[in-house]
Design a protein that fits this description.
The structure is a homodimer.
Chain A lengths: L1 H22 L4 H17 L1 H14 L5 H7 L3 H16 L7 E6 L5 E8 L2 E6 L4 H12 L3 E5 L5 H17 L7 E3 L6 H6 L8 E5 L2 H10 L12 E5 L5 H13 L8 E7 H17 L3 E4 L1 H6 L4 E2 L13 E7 L2 H11 L4 E5 L3 H10 L4 E6 L16 E3 L7 E3 L5 E12 L3
Parallel strand pairs in A: 3-4, 3-6, 4-5, 7-8, 7-12, 8-11, 9-10, 9-11, 12-13
Antiparallel strand pairs in A: 1-2, 2-16, 14-15
Helix pairs in contact in A: 2-5, 2-7, 3-7, 5-6, 6-7, 10-11
């Protein structure tokens, strides 16, 4: 049984590798035509998808409301999925871009050309829309993709996959172009993660648990972010009205996402002017505050923040607050306690700002803006397959370009090495 | 004992992380001044270095001649090391480069800025010059570096390190800027490779064994190349004089390196015209040939190539030869048997050439040139820390730029997310 599973998963990976060689050389027009047909297929198979989704929902009744919400599809969500595929057709094809070209002393012409990575595996949790989103981005960037969704959304994923795959078949593309691992057996993931001879990169999308599991058992390179512990630092030279708006937005506008603020740092020179009003505003919005001793002197109702609080991604209406001596303490705190995701300084002092932007070791560093902008769409990348807090290959929002590598094409006229 | 070792290695890694924050913000002038003093220190400590090297050599008498050759330093090699450091001062500093900048609809100014990776660990074998080369490149790219050389060259490495570190101290840079792991205990490497909280990337430099060991036990991302099984494919439309020169150069000029040709593919339409003269030339140069049935019909003295031959990196005057039906077979053979390092086509047909360059899935693909050009210096990068056959982060020759990542600096004027 396990041996058969290994053979099955290996078979999928081999087919994906073979398909990737062909996908790498499709024209943009050819890829866009498939994407358009995929969008159409989602709409025309709407009823099947919704029916499959109802099946998933009815087997997941015991899970919480948030879980069911992530799992549930309706007509609007299917239209969104189709729309996202059409959006991808309008994005610039990264493949074949001449990144740099130069001539060498030996008379060679070297061209650094953007190319697809090859085979991408995506391991995700309960949101079925990830199925269509990832297929769209991987196809447009010329990669084949192997999908492994959560077992609770298997029927929905399968229905979506079948619709998308009908477009692959219609255009005569190899059947390994997009694959979905259908067995609910959890061992399938362990097997998949060992296939570094066929798969080039794994992108886990989901909670910290999932990501840790993937990282610890993968022999394939992983692009990931564990969590977003984002800070806003209100400097001594901040415009305090602006600071209040930015901090409120970063915490309250959508607290459940990775680019929301989890920790607010305030320079001691402005703490007494800034904190009373700010904390009151947070209180009115239902934000629970956990503060340092200084903060608690200003607002008696504030809970005491522990060391652990400063390392916690609440993903909720909870905020840790700390008053710091100076910019250096703020930078050191962020580098030590943060998750290298997104951090902002509010200040009118350009020197202080630049020091912060340079020395804070995070994927995205902001001056006078909310951390909530760390997002492929907000950055103008058009789509997003995740946000990386790694430093190798991709950092920050990842879109089409981050799904590519490059190769050197070297044009000679008989050159040999002396 | 083991606990102490763990503490010691962790201490080194923590200091390297702290130092990296400062190195990331040094000016190019400051870094170049240190590099110049490092070069001077190598020369002024020449006697100490040579003395230490003699100690290493005398303990390694039992090893082979090639080993001793790699290990041995003399005045000329020390001058070369110093010269390489001076060369690095003349390379463009990659840190701070504005890779791309744009404005978003929300009025944010986004700048993608090249930044150091942070802490780089280099694990290498018996060549002591690697110590100075890696320190130069890591320092110029604003990274701190942790070095772990082979135990046989420990005294040499230590003497070189001490000279380099005197320049670090003279300029008041943090002592974690460059570190050398001094204990001969092999457990030190295992400990080091688990410190993914402090170290950003590991670059192993050495034989396949070393690299495999690092990959299998590292929790830190690794940039590597296992081996170079490089091909030259002589197409039906090749200029056969040119093909002969290129193939001869790729095999014979320096057979012991990763970009030398290990396997030659020949289109059947030109095999009878091309192979007799080519094989004779190889024979005269002492190259042992292992060929397919077709090849052996042309030259009876040729040994039969096994399946394993086509997967072997000889690093020696041995060559596998195969006659193929067409371009497609050549491409499929290279993608299947090769190591995705460097492969060349010799042809006058531009369509065939482009198909080869696009579909061969290797870091460097050549038209009408020897594979021997895959090298940071030959590419005009000025220096090289290795050649990657990975696809993530860096592919092909790696120099200063490949030792950097990027961050997004986002300049706002109070923007909040709607």
């Amino acid at each position: 049984m396990k041996k058969n599973l290994k053979k099955e998963i290996e078979g999928i990976a081999k087919m994906a590798l073979a398909a990737s060689r062909l996908l790498a050389n499709l024209t943009s027009d050819a890829k866009n035509a498939v994407l358009k047909d995929m969008a159409a297929a989602l709409l025309s198979n709407k009823q099947d998808i919704l029916k499959a989704n109802r099946k998933d929902i009815s087997s997941s009744r015991s899970k919480g409301k948030a879980f069911i919400d992530r799992l549930t599809l309706d007509e609007a969500r299917i239209r969104q999925m189709a729309g996202a595929l059409l959006d991808v057709t309008r994005l610039k094809d990264p493949v074949g871009e001449l990144m740099r070209g130069w001539n060498t002393d030996s008379g060679l012409r070297i061209q650094k050309v953007r190319s697809p990575i090859g085979v991408i595996a995506i391991i995700y949790e309960s949101r079925p829309n990830v199925t269509a989103d990832c297929v769209g981005l991987c196809l447009k960037s010329g990669n084949s993709v192997i999908l492994r969704g959560g077992s609770e959304s298997l029927n929905s994923n399968l229905a979506i996959y079948n619709a998308l795959n009908s477009a692959i078949q219609k255009h005569g593309l190899p059947c390994g172009s997009i694959s979905l691992i259908k067995t609910p057996d959890r061992k399938a993931v362990d097997i998949l993660l060992k296939l570094n001879n066929y798969i080039d990169v794994v992108i886990p999308r989901g909670g910290e648990e999932l990501i840790k599991k993937v990282v610890s058992s993968s022999r394939i390179p992983v692009i990931k972010h564990y969590k977003g512990i984002c800070h806003v630092y209100v400097d001594a030279w901040a415009d305090l009205n602006m600071a209040e708006k930015i901090c409120f937005n970063a915490k309250v506008q959508r607290p459940g996402v990775c680019n929301a603020m989890e920790s607010m740092l305030v320079h001691r020179d402005v703490a007494i002017r800034f904190l009373p009003g700010m904390l009151k505003k947070f209180k009115e919005a239902g934000v629970q505050i956990r503060g340092c001793a200084f903060t608690r002197k200003i607002a008696k109702w504030v809970q005491r923040a522990t060391e652990k609080d400063y390392r916690t991604e609440y993903l909720d209406l909870i905020l840790s607050v700390k008053v710091v001596e100076d910019l250096d303490e703020a930078i050191a705190h962020i580098n030590n306690y943060g998750s290298h995701h997104s951090d902002s300084i509010v200040t009118d002092d350009y020197d202080e700002a630049l020091k912060f932007l340079r020395q804070v070791d995070s994927a995205c560093v902001y001056l006078n803006a909310s951390t909530r902008f760390t997002d492929g769409n907000q950055f103008g990348m058009g789509a997003e397959i995740g946000i990386s807090t790694d430093k190798l290959h991709a950092r920050g929002p990842m879109a089409l370009e981050e799904l590519t590598t490059y190769k050197y094409m070297v044009f000679g006229s008989g050159q040999v090495r002396q």
